Amino acid sequence: MSESPALSELLKDAPTNWGKWGPDDEVGALNYLTAEEVMRGISSVKSGRVFTLQRMIGDPKGDPVWPGRTPAVRTQILDESDWDEGGKGPDFPGGLHYADDKIEAFLQGSTQYDALGHLWFDGKIWNGHSADTTRGGLEKASIMPIANRGVVGRGILLDMARWRGKDSLDSAETFTHEDLMACAKDQGTEIAKRDIIIIRTNYMQQFHTKGDAFYENFCEPGLVYSPELVEWFQKMEIPNLATDSIANEVTFDPNTGVALTLHCALMRNLGIALTEICDLEELAADCAEDRQYTFMYAAAPLKVSKAAGTPVNPLAIK
Ligand code: UVW
Q1: Angle 32-37-39 (CA atoms, 0-180°, nearest 5)?
Q2: In order of start, what are the domains of the chain with their CATH numbers?
Q3: For the residues of 79-122, what is the DSSP string, one character each?
Q4: Is the shortest distance between the CB of 251 and ligand 1 below 6 Å?
Q5: Would you tell me which of 5, 156, 288, 302 could form a disulfide with 9, CB atoms 3.0–4.6 Å apart?
Q6: Nearest CA to ligand 1 atom 6
């Protein structure tokens, strides 16, 4: 493959939503989730069954993370042993004992929301703010405005793995917005304007089966950039894209070699919120059974000052 183009060249004619919601906006396409959209999400609830979409932090089988990050480490600080002879447990009146623990974790090392200022090219983050605003912590477009706002709307599951007749998509396998529409149709539904799109690849199954080899020639499957795909996301006013992969798109674009093009085209440029590393297995099995692929989606990423992203346990309510 010849040398990869710069993102500024590749996306020079790509649409942006910069300025659309004012110069100070920090939540981007989540603005599409008006009260009306919240009600549309609520009206898609049929039985009241709740699915939690977070992967467990500290899974004994391991936590998949973007290369260069490390899984969370949970440390026990206090337990009953601290009240054994010579232990360090505090001596409270009444004899109270308690367990305490802490984690050291990448804020994006599990199911998580990206802040809109999480990544950039050409020295500019979402809404045209200078990348200098990220020094020492995000002054603009951190996770805080998204965490303060919360995310509620109608979600639609697109089970790409089942649609392709596979347990899990393969490394570097791609699909397009046309595939998403075809998958929706075969599931007996249709992607509506302002839907929160949730895509299942079940690629993390390979994290468990391949062991260390999972990170060799790392290239996740996922959506692949094209100008038409970006136009479609823009025209459909998609507020939020969630997947069960680590980075929501094919890692290296097979046509250009560029890494994470859609993070730039969809998140940095259009302000679409990204939710990553979801666990969609129970939800997908249920949807395959009852054929109800739309539901209320609700998520509240953790509030961490200046953070580039934070953990979340999204809910799908059918
Ligand atoms: C990177 O940070 C590079 O990716 P992600 O958005 O998947 O965390």
Answers
A1: 160
A2: 7-66+107-317 (3.50.30.50), 73-104 (no CATH)
A3: -GGGGSTT------TT-----EEEEE--TTSSSEEEPTTS--BT
A4: no
A5: 5
A6: 247
CB atoms inside a 10 Å sphere around CB 109 = 22
Amino acid at 305: S
Query: Is 246 close to ligand 1, i.e. is its CB under 6 Å away?
Result: yes
Please answer whether residues 114 and 307 qualify as being in contact, where contact means their C-beta atoms are separated by less than 8 angstroms: no
pLDDT at site 38: 98
pLDDT at 195 over 90: yes
Atom of ligand 1 nearest to the CA of 259: 3
pLDDT of 313 higher than 70: yes
Written as one letter, the residue type at 298 is: A
Residue 212 pLDDT more than 90? Answer: no
CA of 106 to the centre of ligand 1 (A): 11
* Backbone φ and ψ of 52, nearest 5°: -100, 135
pLDDT digits (tens, 9 = 90+) for 254-277: 999 999 999 999 999 999 999 999
Distance of alpha carbon 35 from alpha carbon 180, whole angstroms: 26
Copy the structure tokens of residue 52. 């939690």
Question: Is the C-beta atom of 114 inside 6 A of ligand 1?
Answer: yes
Of 175, 251, 187, nearest to 219 (Cα)?
251
User: Are 108 and 276 a contacting pair, CB within 8 Å?
Assistant: yes
Intra-chain end-to-end CA distance of the chain, in Å:
46
Q: What is the DSSP letter of 191?
A: P
For tokens 């929501």, what's the residue?
248
Two tokens, residue 4: 């990869």
Enter the tokens of residue 103: 């984690």
CA nearest ligand 1 atom 5, residue? 247
Per-residue DSSP letter, 132 = G
Any ligand 1 atom below 6 A from CB of 141: no
Residue 297 CA, ligand 1 centroid: distance in Å? 22
158: confidence class by pLDDT, cuts 50, 70, 90 = very high
Distance 189 CA to ligand 1 centre (A): 30
